[in-house]
Hints:
Among the domains are: 1-116, Tetratricopeptide repeat domain (Serine Threonine Protein Phosphatase 5, Tetratricopeptide repeat, Alpha Horseshoe), CATH 1.25.40; 294-345; 370-434, 5' to 3' exonuclease, C-terminal subdomain (DNA polymerase, domain 1). Helix 7 (101-113) runs antiparallel to helix 8, helix 10 (153-166) packs antiparallel against helix 11 (170-183) and helix 14 (222-234) packs parallel to helix 16 (256-269). The two termini are 19 Å apart. The chain is 64% helix and 0% strand. By secondary structure, it is mostly helical. The model is unreliable at 359-365 (pLDDT under 50).
Amino acid sequence: MSQATIELRDIVLSNSSFGPNDIQVIARKISDDYQQFPILRDLTAELESQTSRSPASSVRLGVCQYLLGRYRAAIATLETADGGALAHFYQGRSHFALGNYTRAIECYESSKQAGLDASVCQVAIAEAKRLMGDVEGAMAILDNLFGPIEQTAEYLSQRAATIALLKTNPDEVVRLYERAVEIDGRHAGALFGLGLENDRRGNDDRAMELYQRASSVFPAHVGALLNLGLLYEDHGQFGRATRCYDRILDAFPGHERARLFRRDAAESMHGGERWDEDRDRVQRRLQTIMQVPIAQFELSVRSRNCLQKMGIITLGDLTRVTEADLLASKNFGETSLVEIREMMKNKNLSIGQFAAEPAPQAEVFDSSSLSPDEQALFDRPISELNLSVRARKCMTRLGLTTIGELVRKSGDDMLECKNFGVTSLNEVREKLEVFGLKMRGE
Length: 442
């Protein structure tokens, strides 16, 4: 089980106290590795299945349901929670997401009375008023806030969005968003707002970069993902566009615009062939499961070591090897085979399920589709990854000097290099993830 998964499990299923810092950790873990999203979904389902939950545990469950986009369930859960400030606040966030702005304001007021930072609640109330159409009321609230809150990304972002609607000072809107992004480079609202301002001014490359940064943050910023998908479509990058819409549909299966945009992008990608939504949903679900790392499961040390020696990293890798292949590995016996069969069965997969099929072809790398910022990243030297001596020597043997040359290699390509094993491969993957990159075929 990966460290990120262990930490998520400890937070979601713990009986200890639960607060804003825990919520930030959950969001950060999934922002850093989106494969943790289905893990959060599974852990939340496990928490839901518990027959006896304390009011405090109901707060934890309600917040997790909110993070997963299950707003109605979150409201129902939080209404039976401990009545504390956090429960009221996330009831408000859930009502806000559903467009129930008046009810959201009532919950924020209750949260303030229960002890949550009054300024934080007031900023949330101002946001709800703005979305209700009471722009002047929202501005009045923001104008009456003083102190540390004025230097937070959330306050600056909300002030920028409000001034944008008033249409009094477009330059100030940009300055406020830029200041918010300086304070918190992972604030989805500020990144989206600044991206939108650049989009309106025709600065496509800058807008795309900002939308990309906003869309990498969890919970998903729907506006950023929609606009990024449309920009990708404008540049003929239909595969990337569909992945943006898929992110939305993961959290919000009923999102009509995302579904329509997804259909158009998929049909364009396949030369106008009609999109079969049901078949596509099944395929996407299967692909997501196939990419889940085996490290996230509790296996015996012997089984884990054998799989690592064979270069089997994901559940998908296990569907492409036969049981005979596994048994041929040194120290791998029937006990390990039974253990892995059970693990695969729990995910509705089987060992060797796709062994007779050719391995999936990696997406062809097209450097012409890169933005200037992406090209600059790919041109950076591998030395900036700060790899271990063993991994660096392998890069030298393969003649790799830039990050772009490295990401064109698959994990199998790297494992063929002398003295380069799974440990080194995982190290390279982790270093690339810092830059938001993966190796070919991943």
